[in-house]
Amino acid sequence: MFLSELLASAIRMSIPILLAALGAVYSERGGVVNIGLEGMMITGSFWGAVGSYYYGPFGGMILAIVAACLMALIHAIVAVTFRVDQIVSGVALNILAYGAARFASIALFQKATMSPHVDGFTPWNIPLLDQITFLKPLVTNLSPIIILAFLLVPLTHWVIQRTVFGLRLRSVGENPLAADTLGIKVYPLRYSGVLISGVLAGLAGAYLAVEHTGMYVEGMTQGKGYIALAAMIFGNWSPVGAMGAALLFGFAESLSFRVVEGGAIPYQFIKMIPYVLTLVVLAGVLRRTTPPAADGIPYERGGE
Amino acid sequence: MRKRSKYLLLEIASPFLAIFFAVLVGALVILAIKKNPVEVYRTMFLFSFRRLDSLAIILFGATPLIFSGLAVAVGFKAGLFNIGIEGQYLIGTFLAALVGFAVKGLPAFIHLPLVILMAMVGGAVWAWLPIYLKVRRGVHEVISTIMLNYISYSLIHFFIAEVFMDKQQGLAPGVGNPLIRLPKIASTALMPKMHGFLSLFGIDLPDHVYLNWFFPLALLLAVGYYFLVWRTPFGYELRAVGQNPAGAEAAGIKPGAVFFKAFLLSGAIAGLTGLSDLLSYFGYMDLDFPRGYGFNGIAVALMGKNGPLGIVLAALLFGFLNRGAEGVQAFVGVPMDTIVILQGVMILSIVVFSEVMGRFIRQQEKKEGLQGSVVL
């Protein structure tokens, strides 16, 4: 029972990381580093709570996606069209998102740091499997977003590997000049990669606020956007790999909540686990991973 | 020659254009909450520049940002992005506070420099792992420093709350809860305020101003930064590696070694960031010690284009925005966070404007070069 509960909580913890990491796959496969994921998640968590508060959970998801997409659009304009350093643009975006969420929170809820309680979706149970006692925590009380997130993994794999769009996206991430020569439009593809990452990061933030916590709290993303980026790198820029890494990080986080109850190790050290794990994983495994060749390099048509 | 000065003018104008653009966006945000932007901006200016205490508070507010901005800039010059200032200065501040309260009986002229040195050591130590991982294991410093920031939050929390917490805060039994903080720093390690010095010139600052000697120290460091980066062989290597690591290596410079030195230096400077608050304002370190100077330092370095003068000006601009925001919140009822948005937009627009302008100038110069006129 303990094990299945631990796994169930690990899966719930991994969802925001998974969604944002899938977003990062689209963005980076198209050649745009997206460190602004954190800011897009902050935006998603806030507007997700706002939407749910006024229009219910579905409205929350929509509003979060739209708001995070606007942030992504800024990143695309600054980093793709104006070719500013992509990390600089992402960091600036994170500062902007933080301030904007505080500001909007004051304007709407008269409080900078939290929203009122909001209701999430009605949880789902998976029929038949929920009859087995051992599996019960794993297959009952599931947010539909959890199921959606796992469905998005094979979908992303298919889109990236098997569709024309995916092929072109990869080509502008690997060698934009060659792609351009063949008549593939580099900018629109890079824009769509970044915008899709905005959609997924917004959804990740909304899940965190609406489904996981039931309210928006300032700083609730706790660097999950950055961890998602690490998960995507650990997963070697592939959706399936990113899922494995996200589950690992989710497991570490849920473990940290369980160990607190034991009390043998100070809880501050338990809280470090996901971050230390990220460092260890990057230090140990990065050598074998290969980013898209033109990842992070702005492309200029007819460039110097 | 006249052409060169024309471009220089354009280059200087670009940050101002960007600030103007950000001010326009800020006006829209203010309009959105049904306030009058003209009144808001007017209040910001009057409150900030017509009061002596405001002016001194702006300088005090700019002090940590000059340090963190210079720390970021040293990294940038070598092509490294140190997002870890945040963690580095927390660790540095903690070590400084530790030596500040644990060591007793030293004269001030030894104790204070020792505390400052410890802050630099703390920052450099916290910068060591990310640069080791980058040079030896190929881990991008942005991700590793962000992870180390979060680790430092927990570590500091542990040390303050569980190990070194001040249990004797002199509260009468049953009166309030003790703060979760370290013991107070010995008076020999505190940095004096500038009140006495300024009163020699007839400037009498009120008591609620905490402008202290770290401000001139920060200016001095900016000058030192200029000499180091543009006037020494090491600075030359730094810039060479930053612009083209492969080219620098071909010229006999070892990029790995330069990366190490630059990043540790960046961490050491970052360690100084919290000291103005620690040694002049609080006198102890608690769980709520100010955060965010690291991220604002990135903004300051970007806005100042990594130049010493630009960084000082950008830090002053942030000091002004923060002080102005207080005035606006108090007198016009506009939340201070409006100003954080303004800062975010300003950073984005400044990097975009300078990128676009730089490209335009390079293109023009290239054209003129083709026509045969001498550039440079």
How would the blueprint of this fold be written?
The complex is a heterodimer of chains A (304) and B (376).
Chain A (H helix, E strand, L loop, with lengths): L1 H28 L7 H45 L4 H24 L26 H4 L4 H19 L1 H11 L1 H6 L4 H28 L10 H11 L4 H24 L4 H19 L19
Helix pairs in contact in A: 1-5, 1-8, 1-9, 1-10, 2-3, 2-8, 2-9, 5-6, 6-8, 9-10, 9-11, 10-11
Chain B lengths: L1 H31 L4 H13 L2 H26 L7 H18 L5 H30 L3 H23 L31 H5 L14 H18 L1 H11 L1 H6 L4 H17 L3 H8 L10 H11 L4 H24 L5 H34 L6
Please give a handful of descriptors for the protein shown.
heterodimer; A: 304 residues; mainly alpha; ABC transporter involved in vitamin B12 uptake, BtuC; 11 helices; 72% helix; 0% strand; B: 376 residues; 2 domains; globular; disordered C terminus
Share of β-strand residues of chain A: under 5%
Helical element count of chain A? 11
Oligomeric status: heterodimer
Domain module count of chain B: 2
CATH class of chain A: Mainly Alpha
What is the third-level CATH name, the topology of chain A?
ABC transporter involved in vitamin B12 uptake, BtuC
User: How many runs of DSSP E, i.e. beta strands of chain A?
Assistant: 0
Spans where pLDDT lies below 50 across 5 or more residues of chain A: none
Overall shape of chain A: it is globular
Question: Can you walk through the features of this model?
Answer:
The complex is a heterodimer of chains A (304) and B (376). In chain A, helix 2 (37-81) crosses helix 3, helix 9 crosses helix 10 and helix 9 (224-234) runs parallel beside helix 11. Chain A has a single domain, classed as Orthogonal Bundle (ABC transporter involved in vitamin B12 uptake, BtuC), CATH 1.10.3470. Chain A is mostly helical. Helix content of chain A is 72%, strand content 0%. In chain B, helix 13 crosses helix 14 (308-331). By secondary structure, chain B is mainly α. Chain B has 15 helices and no strands. Helices cover 73% and strands 0% of the residues of chain B. The chains are: A mainly alpha (304), B mainly alpha (376). Chain A binds chain B through residues 35, 74, 78, 82-85, 87-89, 91-100, 102-103, 106-107, 112, 222-223, 226, 229-230, 233, 266, 268-269, 271-272, 275-276, 278-279, 282-284, 286-287, and chain B through 29, 32-33, 81, 83, 129, 133, 137-139, 142-144, 146-151, 154-155, 157-158, 161-162, 295-296, 298-299, 302, 335, 337-341, 343-345, 347-348, 351-352, 355-356.
